[in-house]
Design brief:
By secondary structure, the protein is mainly β. It has one helix and six strands. A four-stranded mixed β-sheet has the order 4-3-6-5, with no helix packed on it. A hairpin with a 5-residue loop joins strand 3 and strand 4. The protein starts with 15 loop residues before the first strand and ends with a strand. The relative contact order is 0.27.
């Protein structure tokens, strides 16, 4: 297994699961405290402003990705999908 430290912006998808009238993130999003404790965050709904407050510029994030092939309206490619994100608290 190869581990790399990236210090550049990396676009990725945070998929959602829709159930009836509600939607949730299928990505496991956690916060790591300075003590080392990791807490899974629970979001009440899918809202980009909640994510904006969590992912501030310069934050360290441990990210676990998968590659998913897509073919949408005659555009095909490989998408980087976040499976688990651990945001480090300052």
């Amino acid at each position: 297994m190869i581990f790399r430290v990236l210090t550049v912006p990396l676009p990725c998808s945070i998929p959602t699961i829709v159930s009836g009238d509600s939607a949730i993130y299928s990505t496991d999003i956690c916060q790591k405290e300075p003590s080392g404790n990791i807490q899974t965050l629970v979001f009440s709904n899918v809202d980009a402003t909640e994510l904006d407050s969590l992912f501030v510029r310069g934050s360290k994030v441990d990210a676990f990705f998968s590659l998913e092939v897509y073919d949408y309206q005659q555009n095909a490619g490989v998408r980087l999908v976040a499976k688990r994100l651990v945001v480090h608290s300052n």
